Amino acid sequence: MLYQTKNPHGGDIYAEPVKLDFSANTNPFGTPQGIIEAVQKSLDTIHCYPDPYCRKLVQAISAFERVPKEYILCGNGAAELIYAYCEAVKPKRAIELAPTFSEYSLGLKRVGCRVERYVLKQSRDFSLGEDFLDYLHEQKPEAVFLCNPNNPSGKLIDCDLMKKILRDCREKDIRLFVDECFLDLTDEGVSLKDCLKEYPNLLILKAFTKSYGMAGIRLGYCMSADASLLTEMSGAAQPWNVSSLAQAAGTAALQQRRFLEETRDLVRVERAWLKSQLEALGFWVCPSQANFLLFRGPEQLHMALKEFGIAIRNCDNYYGLGTGWYRIAVKLHHENEALIDAITQIAERK
Predict the structure, then answer these.
(1) What three-state secondary structure class fits 277?
(2) Per-residue pLDDT for 1 more than 60?
């Protein structure tokens, strides 16, 4: 699918040697052993088709999220669900933030949707403000796409503001798509899942990729009280889209609650350390509440770091950013030290 298309994301460790990959915001601890063992055990069933309804996995998600099973749809990664949502809703006009994750606009453009962007400002630390409500009223979209915390800034949307957006969207019959894929790795993030029953116009996206270090498995899910929407989305996906290995991995992952707590503890400490070190080098760093940092540094820094076998996310293709903007994952301390040491050497040369 992507062989003739540029992949605008991080995590491409295959084109050239990469010792440390800071370009993909996955769990710094990697994949829990319990998930690896579950995948190994499931190898005995790979001669069979996977469960097309993901019954065991959906049951596990339902218990973990405390939402009805009927609200849940699984997919081959969060990206598949984004595209399935766009195909099912087919809005003519939609709003997203800028900068934000690029797959929303790419999915919308596939269905001929006009995408309007609310541009976040560095002077406000890329935070979403109350004036977004006025923008929403002016644009009159059919769908709104929000990422909480936002990617690449790592900023959470204020809870009171999110509730106002949710109410406004319901009153104006606007669909609200909220990406919570990084929410489980934040300290203070509050999910909207308790609002699903009251707001059938709401859909929440989640994935196992970041929280449990399962990027290679490709597994995501969404939650909505709109049964007809989930049916339409299911029809937009191919049959047997979630492999038996992915279903086993996801079911095992949801038992790893202590793993998420330990990850949040590590991220809180290491994120603060990384931010202080980057600022000491003279870079502007966005205050993040997630497991990654957005900063502004020297042009071509991402290219210079290749000499050290280090990959970071060059953010010049994010709408609203440009040359000199980068995003890095928060990793283990010795890995973070290696990154700062390499950047320091590069800065000293210049």
Answers:
(1) helix
(2) no
